[in-house]
Amino acid sequence: xxxxxxxxxxxxxxxxxxxxxxxxxxxxxxxxxxxxxxxxxxxxxxxxxxxxxxxxxxxxxxxxxxxxxxxxxxxxxxxxxxxxxxxxxxxxxxxxxxxxxxxxx
Length: 105
Fold this sequence. Notes:
By secondary structure, this protein is α/β, with parallel strands linked by helices. Helix content is 21%, strand content 21%. It has a five-stranded mixed β-sheet with strand order 3-2-4-1-5, covered by helices on one side.
């Protein structure tokens, strides 16, 4: 992680992205305990304008390199990432899907 320019990340998962980035040793080395700046159309939260996490409204994998430097997204096979010439550099978390129903219906 370099401190020379603004790092722009796109994700639907703003809190997860912020916690993950803030937990990286390289981030802590340059920025200490500052919170990455979360940017949405209706709010700006955080105090580190050098690392910005922008809310994505779909097609996140199509945003680099013009709009952002990195993305945090959910992937099952990685096919669309490969089609957009992206590669996974770290796994943030694993997830499972569940069908949940209301027992009254």
